[in-house]
């Protein structure tokens, strides 16, 4: 069985590794996004899937647009029996979907039809979902609308961030793919249509999604911080500059720690600093920031920052 694998970030690497390590399948090429500038020096950096593929001696294609006729022709020339995608980052055109005799399947990081789109893992954490999972699905022209083959559930705990969930779900996705690969090879994999009435969407994150709203509940602030960690990070403003919040202590069910004078403060006000971190007023109580990153600096414990910056009671973040 000749397979073309399409994926880009670290999430996709375990699925590619699984396909390479199993017998009876040959990965004839890997398709991934072009190298992009990264870091302060904006150095051109290959995506994780490309780096891994080259280590394993695989042919790598990096079309800027998968819809371009020359990109479709390049994949067609490989004559794949099956195309497997995992967080590739582009919607495949009909010309590619119709190429392989066994179809195109996707390892998607949610329990479809919930969280269709490009940021299902981050948004499930931001939303405070108690669980998420992976869906192995046949691809269609719509956005994650294809028939489902199988699912696996993965719980989300208060200790989880998007980073830990990416690791858990990428491993679960690779296992699910291997489990169903024989049924994909012989054409007997099941097809369960999605119920579109239950669909929710997880579009890619924007700068507005990263900004903290201190008038929200403590639980919502906590969820947003860990849903954006360790990638871009949630942010607020301090003294007119971006002030990233990298860690927040899980809030109590009821904030009994609010003193009377604290209750009078507006959301976003620093109530206390030092000790465990920086306590900030929220819409229904307070949260304690445990790790922060001032503009142009590295992340550090919030208590250390507060001592050095002499962060005073009444300072307003926002």
Automatic annotation (TrEMBL):
UniProt catalytic activity: L-methionyl-tRNA(fMet) + (6R)-10-formyltetrahydrofolate = N-formyl-L-methionyl-tRNA(fMet) + (6S)-5,6,7,8-tetrahydrofolate + H(+)
One GO CC term of this entry?
cytosol
Give EC number(s), comma-separated.
2.1.2.9
Q: What is this protein called?
A: Methionyl-tRNA formyltransferase
One Pfam family per UniProt: Formyl_trans_N
Q: A single Gene Ontology molecular function, please?
A: methionyl-tRNA formyltransferase activity
InterPro entries, A to Z: Fmt, Formyl_trans_C, Formyl_transf_N, Formyl_transf_N_sf, Formyl_transferase-like_C_sf, GART_AS, Met-tRNA-FMT_C, Met-tRNA-FMT_N
Organism classification: Bacteria, Bacillati, Bacillota, Bacilli, Bacillales
Query: Can you name the source organism?
Result: Cohnella nanjingensis
Identify the residues that the record assigns to the Formyl transferase N-terminal domain, covering every copy.
1-179
């Amino acid at each position: 069985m000749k397979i073309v694998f399409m994926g880009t970030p670290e999430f996709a690497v375990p699925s590619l590794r699984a396909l390479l390590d199993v017998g009876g399948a040959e990965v004839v090429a890997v398709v991934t996004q072009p190298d992009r500038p990264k870091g302060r020096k904006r150095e051109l950096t290959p995506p994780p899937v490309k780096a891994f593929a080259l280590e394993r001696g695989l042919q790598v294609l990096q079309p800027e647009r998968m819809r371009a006729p020359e990109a479709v022709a390049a994949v067609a020339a490989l004559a794949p029996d099956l195309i497997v995608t995992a967080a590739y980052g582009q919607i495949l055109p009909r010309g590619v979907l119709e190429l392989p005799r066994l179809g195109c399947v996707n390892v998607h990081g949610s329990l479809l039809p919930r969280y269709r789109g490009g940021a299902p893992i981050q948004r499930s954490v931001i939303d405070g979902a108690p669980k998420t999972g992976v869906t192995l699905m046949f691809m269609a022209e719509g956005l994650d609308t294809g028939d489902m083959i199988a699912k696996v559930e993965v719980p989300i705990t208060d200790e989880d961030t998007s980073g830990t969930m990416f690791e858990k779900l990428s491993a679960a996705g690779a296992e699910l793919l291997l489990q169903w690969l024989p049924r994909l090879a012989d054409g007997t994999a099941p097809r369960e249509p999605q119920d579109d009435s239950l669909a929710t969407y997880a579009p890619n994150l924007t700068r507005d999604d990263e900004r903290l709203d201190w008038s929200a509940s403590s639980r919502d602030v906590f969820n947003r911080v860990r849903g954006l960690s360790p990638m871009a990070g949630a942010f607020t403003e301090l003294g007119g500059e971006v002030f990233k919040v990298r860690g927040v202590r899980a809030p109590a069910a009821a904030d009994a720690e609010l003193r009377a004078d604290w209750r009078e403060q507006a959301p976003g006000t620093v109530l206390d600093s030092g000790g465990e971190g920086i306590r900030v007023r929220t819409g229904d109580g307070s949260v304690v920031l445990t790790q922060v990153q001032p503009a142009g600096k590295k992340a550090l414990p919030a208590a250390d920052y507060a001592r050095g910056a002499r962060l005073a009671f009444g300072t307003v973040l926002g």
